[in-house]
Design a protein that fits this description.
By secondary structure, this protein is an alpha/beta fold. The protein is built from four helices and eight strands; from the N terminus they run αβαβββαββββα. A five-stranded mixed sheet has the order 2-8-7-4-5. The chain has a three-stranded mixed sheet with strand order 1-3-6, with no helix packed on it. Belongs to the early nodulin-like (ENODL) family.
Length: 224
């Protein structure tokens, strides 16, 4: 039962983290409302990239008029020289939605005419995603709860002694150490037997008296 509870908790935590990452993803529109066009000045897209923090898990979207523009993903060298001899990816239709799966640096240009030299190029810096929040603490199951035993009083009203300890022995007074009180009389085995014999003889005599009286009365009646 406990094993199934742990599996349920782990599955719920994984689902929670997946939903959190999905819901926390941010969608960025390159160029904002202007989109992907020939910029009004050469550093327009560079400024845009520096003012937007993009993390792994976010989404970057390029919107453009595909009659006049395109989107090319290139290497850093071709980005710097505004060439597209060995493009990594080519996008000729809009919109282009790119999920940022991991940390890295991506280079994009427009290969039409001299638009790249006019500033239609951008570097996307993808940073690490923020750490997810810690899962809520798991409450201990009843089988894991510590068991506490409260001490109970013994019938004489004293607390029970710990296991392995012996009860305190009663104190005895020896002659000469009881504050000067004389020792009490002691009985010997011989004295006990004499007392028993005396009591037994007295009981026998008392029981024999009535019997002799009855015997004397019968004898007198017979002699008459």
């Amino acid at each position: 039962m406990l094993h199934h509870q742990n599996l349920f908790v782990l599955s719920f935590a994984a689902l929670f983290l997946a939903l959190f990452c999905h819901c926390s993803a941010t969608k960025f529109m390159v160029g904002d409302s202007a989109g992907w066009i020939i910029p009004p000045y050469p550093t327009y897209y560079s400024n845009w990239s520096q003012t937007h923090i993009i993390r792994a898990g976010d989404i970057v979207e390029f919107k453009f008029d595909d009659k006049f523009y395109n989107l090319i993903q290139v290497s850093q060298q071709e980005y710097e020289h505004c060439t597209s001899l060995e493009p990594l990816r080519i996008f000729n239709s809009s919109p282009v939605i790119l999920p940022m799966k991991e940390r890295g640096v991506l280079y994009f240009t427009c290969s039409i005419s001299n638009y790249c030299c006019l500033g239609q190029k951008i570097v996307i810096y993808v940073q690490d995603s923020p750490p997810p929040p810690p899962p809520p603490p798991q409450s201990p199951s009843p089988s894991q709860a510590p068991i506490t035993i409260s001490p109970q009083l013994s019938p004489n009203g004293s607390a029970p002694q710990p296991y392995g300890s012996s009860p305190p022995s009663p104190t005895t007074n020896t002659p000469g150490t009881d504050g000067g009180n004389p020792p009490g009389p002691t009985s010997t085995p011989g004295g006990n037997s004499n007392a028993v014999a005396l009591v037994g003889g007295r009981s026998f005599t008392e029981s024999l008296g009535p019997l002799l009286s009855m015997l004397g009365a019968l004898l007198g009646f017979w002699m008459m």
